[in-house]
Amino acid sequence: MDKILVHGGHSLNGSVRISGSKNSALPILAATLLTREPCTISNVPDLSDIHYMLQILSHLGAQVERASGVVRVEAEKIKTVAPYDIVRKMRASVCVLGPLLGREKEATVSLPGGCVIGDRPIDLHLKGFEALGAVSRIEHGNVKVFAGTLRGTTVNLRGKQGPTVLGTDNVIMAAVLAEGTTIIESAAAEPEVVDLANFLNKMGAKIEGAGSRRIVIEGVKELHGAEHTVIPDRIEAGTFLVAGAMMGGEVTLRRVTHEHLGSVIDAVRLAGYEVETSAGSIRVRGNGAPKPLQLTTEPYPGFPTDMQAQMCALLAQTNGISVISETIFPQRYMHVSELKRMGADISLDGHTAIIKGVEKLSGAPVMASDLRASAALVLAGLRAEGVTEVNRVYHIDRGYESIDEKLNQLGARIERVKA
Ligand code: EPU
Predict the structure, then answer these.
(1) For the structural domain made of 22-229, what CATH number should be given?
(2) Prediction pTM value
(3) 142-146/106-110 β-pairing
(4) Measuring from atom 24 of ligand 1, which residue has the nearest CA?
(5) Which of 169, 307, 345, 405 could form a disulfide linkage to 27, CB 3.0–4.6 angstroms apart?
């Protein structure tokens, strides 16, 4: 298994190009199943999660071609059963359920289990499908959904932890070809949901209100092929923003939509760093006297759970006491025990982390446990004294395109050791 060696203490300067959004690209690629005609998607990041999704589309019968960030999918004839071997590798595979149900009126996908960031139920996805008239069954580890006809309805997708992103995507994708009008109340408002709705509208769907808590979908008879460019990855951008803040110099993020990062930029500014935005770019400058923070993760436009681990790495090395509350995935603290091995002073009380900043962490061998936790360990290593050895880096390759190369271009010293 590959590992990453981070040599700490090298300041970051210069500019970095942000890749296309993983969490937009995954449901958008799934949505290409809704038409027989070819679709062309650009700015698709080169990540293992994307490769898994393309494998699923191929297995389902689609013709898939990929060349430098552009993916062409033609799903003239499709099957409706997604294979366990690929699905188990990536939870986001569940987002083929909506398009398969919408087009073929049936779908069978392996049921995603929990994962290190906590329980990952799909009850709200199924609630939406059932409201449209589908029946769902769990059989032999698979979830099967089927319907005679899908009919528009009003459904509230609010769960205990708030709205669901992929659940909203899935119900939109099932409803675009349903008879009549569907209204989703308490919908997720993340930019990735808006990107999916924009793509579907280019395919001929009639969706209004994406980006708000109420989405209205007027069903159409069929969809046609379309071209779309995926939005920049706001979490990759946020990760580089935090890295730039931590490491002193001046870092510019290019090809980024700063409007999608409002709460992250606010937090970095509150921590005492200078952040300037202009069309398509964000510039962050390090500062000698950073301040502790109180943060709560929330659905968009609140502070994203996908940036919580990276903020922990920053605050672990910021004098004073910071408090982070994780409300979306209350157990998403796998990075904490690893940061502690590097000398961090963090205690957990339920879903709250109390972080007493120390001047410097010290490099240590650490274990990546999930995507964002791995990013946090790399960030912590950038500032730590000595070498941080991050093991199981396949987690980071799921969601960051060449993070080691991009950080090295900014002045970091990171080596990837091939197994
Ligand atoms: N939930 C339910 N029932 C459901 C679905 C979700 O109770 O049927 C709960 C979840 O357990 C969680 C909350 O609702 O407590 C929110 O989960 P959500 O459904 O929004 O998560 P998701 O759609 O499965 C996406 C991202 C995650 C990101 C979350 C929250 C993709 C592929 N994944 O997951 O991204 O953390 O939204 O913003 O879009 C990552 O990129 O590292 C990542 C984990």
Answers:
(1) 3.65.10.10
(2) 0.97
(3) antiparallel
(4) 166
(5) 169
